[in-house]
Design a protein that fits this description.
There is one protein chain. The chain folds into two domains: 62 residues, no CATH class; 73 residues, no CATH class. The C terminus is likely disordered. By secondary structure, the chain is mainly α. Helix 1 crosses helix 3 and helix 2 crosses helix 3. Helices cover 68% and strands 0% of the residues. It is elongated, with a radius of gyration of 19 Å. The longest helix is centred in the last third of the chain and has 25 residues.
Length: 142
C-alpha cells in the first residue's frame, strides 16, 4: 500500500509548510490576492508546490484552491454582515476578497453556504438589526 505523500516529509518540513501557509494566508491574508496559486506561494517561499498541495490536503481538508475559496467566502461573509459594507455590491466585495469574477464568487458561495451572497447579506443584516433592536429596547426599559 502506498504511503501518503506527507508521510514522506519530515515533521520539521510539514511544520515549516504549515507555518508558511498560516503566516501568508491566515495572518497576512494573501488569499485576497486574485490569481494566487500554490505555485506562487511555493516559489515565494522556496518550497515545492507538491509539498504545499500535500500539506493542504492533509491538514487543511482539501486542495490549496479549496482552502483559498473557504477563506475568501469567510471574508465575504464578514463583509456582507457588516453595515460598513451594506452599500458595496456583492460583486465588488467578492473582487476585494480575491475572487476573479462575479461567477466564481457565486459558485463558491452557493457551494459553501447554500445561498447567494445577496441572500446571505439580507438574512444577516436583518438578524443583526433585530438583535440590536432587542438590545436597544432592553436598555430603554431597564
Amino acid at each position: 500500500m502506498e504511503r501518503k505523500y506527507t508521510e514522506r516529509l519530515s515533521q520539521a518540513r510539514v511544520s515549516r509548510i504549515c507555518q508558511i501557509i498560516n503566516a501568508e494566508l491566515f495572518q497576512q491574508e494573501a488569499f485576497l490576492q486574485q490569481g494566487l496559486t500554490a505555485r506562487m506561494l511555493a516559489e515565494r517561499n522556496g518550497i515545492s508546490m507538491q509539498d504545499i498541495s500535500a500539506v493542504c490536503a492533509e491538514y487543511f481538508g482539501g486542495s490549496f484552491a479549496m482552502l483559498l475559496q473557504r477563506l475568501r467566502v469567510r471574508k465575504v461573509c464578514r463583509m456582507l454582515s457588516s453595515r460598513e459594507y451594506e452599500r458595496v455590491s456583492c460583486e465588488n466585495i467578492g473582487l476585494r476578497c480575491g475572487f476573479s469574477s462575479r461567477q466564481s464568487l457565486y459558485n463558491a458561495f452557493r457551494r459553501q453556504k447554500g445561498m447567494t451572497p445577496e441572500g446571505y447579506r439580507q438574512k444577516n443584516l436583518n438578524n443583526n438589526e433585530k438583535n440590536s433592536n432587542t438590545d436597544d429596547s432592553s436598555t430603554v426599559d431597564g
